[in-house]
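Q: A reviewer asked whether we had any structural model of the full assembly, not just the individual parts. We don't, so I'm hoping you can provide one. Inputs are below.
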Amino acid sequence: MKHIDLNCDMGESFGAYTIGMDTEVMNHITSANIACGFHAGDPLVMDKTVKLAQQKKVGIGAHPGYPDLLGFGRRHMACLETEIQQYVIYQVGGLQGFCRAYGAKMQHVKPHGALYLDAVENDTVARGVADGILAVDPDLLFVALAGKKGETMRRMGAQTGLKVVYEAFPDRAYTPEGTLVSRKHPGAVISDPDEVARRALDMANGYVIAIDGTRIDLEVHSLCVHGDNPAAVDLVKNIRQTLEASGIRVIPMGETSP
Amino acid sequence: MKHIDLNCDMGESFGAYTIGMDTEVMNHITSANIACGFHAGDPLVMDKTVKLAQQKKVGIGAHPGYPDLLGFGRRHMACLETEIQQYVIYQVGGLQGFCRAYGAKMQHVKPHGALYLDAVENDTVARGVADGILAVDPDLLFVALAGKKGETMRRMGAQTGLKVVYEAFPDRAYTPEGTLVSRKHPGAVISDPDEVARRALDMANGYVIAIDGTRIDLEVHSLCVHGDNPAAVDLVKNIRQTLEASGIRVIPMGETSP
Amino acid sequence: MKHIDLNCDMGESFGAYTIGMDTEVMNHITSANIACGFHAGDPLVMDKTVKLAQQKKVGIGAHPGYPDLLGFGRRHMACLETEIQQYVIYQVGGLQGFCRAYGAKMQHVKPHGALYLDAVENDTVARGVADGILAVDPDLLFVALAGKKGETMRRMGAQTGLKVVYEAFPDRAYTPEGTLVSRKHPGAVISDPDEVARRALDMANGYVIAIDGTRIDLEVHSLCVHGDNPAAVDLVKNIRQTLEASGIRVIPMGETSP
Amino acid sequence: MKHIDLNCDMGESFGAYTIGMDTEVMNHITSANIACGFHAGDPLVMDKTVKLAQQKKVGIGAHPGYPDLLGFGRRHMACLETEIQQYVIYQVGGLQGFCRAYGAKMQHVKPHGALYLDAVENDTVARGVADGILAVDPDLLFVALAGKKGETMRRMGAQTGLKVVYEAFPDRAYTPEGTLVSRKHPGAVISDPDEVARRALDMANGYVIAIDGTRIDLEVHSLCVHGDNPAAVDLVKNIRQTLEASGIRVIPMGETSP
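A: Here is a predicted structure for the entire assembly that you could use as a starting point for your response.
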């Protein structure tokens, strides 16, 4: 029986500020990427989010980012490899504190925003992230981009010795080469819920229909979904139902990791 | 054979900014209280400081503070007990990341600055700190103020289930009641190196000469020393030599913890 | 013809985080207290908010707070008078930059959250705030608490040489002594929109009905309203309509300042 | 009679952290670039530094940087032009607050670290900085890199309508094309005090000897010097004495601005 994981960014609130509908989304996903206080999140939010994930049996992951709360971690920063490594160690360690407080085991790490994009483009960034993860706990899964574009990031993770989880984006168009269509192009983001759910199912079955209609193979272990607004929550629910109705088991990446 | 620990605040540099002569001081102390990024310290500094402590066989401790880099954690902030607990979990967790990176075991936690002073004065603050420590690792030692004034802080630590280490300040005058003389009073801080070393020896022997000349009992497991400038480093060296010349073993608190 | 000002906290968003319905509320108020980047707000938000206020002919004010984004400036911090003064200078100066960019004149300053509450309780805090305002521009109005409780804060402003604007809270119950009923007591916050609007009208007429039914005099120049959610916006609209329907002119404090 | 300005970064301390020997250096320079709280500096430091510059009749300038205290503003951040503009408005405004507090007139703005380097390389960054300055005060001088490499930065300043001051680095080697030799190459930084002073004199006379021995023309209004350590302070003193002994007037850029 086939299976897939649904991962979502969680715990992005900060102090008096709220982002995301974590309580609702946590009912539908299987892995939570929890912000660790650099680009979003704070100790109270981390505590609450780890507790909630633990209750809902959702796999707990760290979501480290650049030290840029003002830019929500979405801006490239020219950090050295060693800086990246140590920023990751600190953030993963911080979240480990809350895992230990709840007797939970951390499952994975996925870099956030510009740190993720830089890890896709740049092998020293990818290695910095992977080395940081390894230093804290070699059993942590490293979530990296599926498809051709993600090869560098995944190779760095694998070379470091980490188990690498391939993730894809059901709401994003793919080129015939298996890379994401840039957000600058029309049609890059797919908003029709049924279309997104159908693409999620394709991905769980190992392929995706590219923007030119070609069917291309895509090895995928986890699907990245969003939970920022009510429509997004409905979308996640719809994806999950579609997958399960088609006989795909939706389970945390840690239960089936490569 | 008697023994005592020498603890010192370490890793208080931040980015381009340097505070402390860590490399020199680390040769003379037995326990390092390492700042965790809230009031001082950053991931690179934490990494470097944990590594150095590990090399020098100095006991590694977390030194969590209020989230006030601008005030160096020296200003009281009206935080809730739960906020304090979670700030401690995050900071201790962050430092744990670096301990794990170097295969080191964290030995203790000592709150910093205003958080320490508030824990002395206020049982909810003390409990917040102790609960935070316990949540991450119940084997961590809780460093609290020796003497009458420290009773609340120590009781909260003990009630939580932590082992409590009593610390005293050889360069500070004590009242006949066994509390620190306020810094506002003349003679509160003792600067003569030989006097400080002699007081350190008294403390290792279980007593201190109060400001009025009375000899009072004081149970002490660790002496807090400073490493901000060359004179301070000489002072630490002098304290250690005086103790060892008098047959006191100077060893990390973790090797002899109560 | 009588007149009153309606002031509201604005510009409290930060980076990717949104608080407040500024665009809607700005249609109904006459003075905006704009966060300056310490407890909330950032340069982009300040720019946008000053521009919006300028367009809507709403009086522009600085809303300085403690340097505590994590606590949204709601936590007391033990700052020295000189620190408070200089934090105010910096924040008011920062907002002045945007006023100058839009050719706008800053009208007033009102401290935020815990800084406001501390200024009410403590004359050194009040003096720090007032001295900071005076240093940047002696023509700025100082918004302080109306009623008996606000005497210290207002006296410090007046002694400094600033014009002081008295503000009251139509959605808060008052004691017969003319002080706010603590939020801990039932009935402290009034939520019925018509009741709040009626109280706003009473205040514009120079009195308030205390929680025990007594009518007490209250000199008020400005009413503090809120804009956090759709119900709050409706409340503001209702207050304004009630005031204007009763022949009270609702105009910026700067046009009628004492 | 020829003249030149000596500018130096000042006010880079933060909270308990000290960088720079401001009190000493301020005796020898004619223009101070004062950090504004983003990459360095805080309100207390800004206050103290503006006051000191005012006392010593040193021209006061803002030294805005990227919002990266952890990286001391030395790391490139991918900010939008509008973000840069508004970060500059806020920081210049903040420093204006202290100028007003001391009745001082701000003279110039010079971007710091990576923001300066990005403005040299990238016209949208240079325009963002220049537009930010213009928005606050069109009389402020814009300090930009002299020589061929600085053409873009200077053109953006001039197009905006600002008066542009050309600065050169007497302790840095220049290529025959009039650009700075990269720090990665040997000989890029000149440390011999007499050599640096002689180069400062050449620059005041409108030329520099390039690394290959060629004499090239270089239009220069201000020389950038450093004040981080005792040797640097001696160097500044030496530069000033050499210039004055050769009949060059050393005066603030604002007194002679182009």
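A: Points you may want to mention in the reply: Chain D has a mean pLDDT of 96. The interface with chain A takes residues 67-68, 70-71, 75-79, 114 of chain D (CB under 8 Å).
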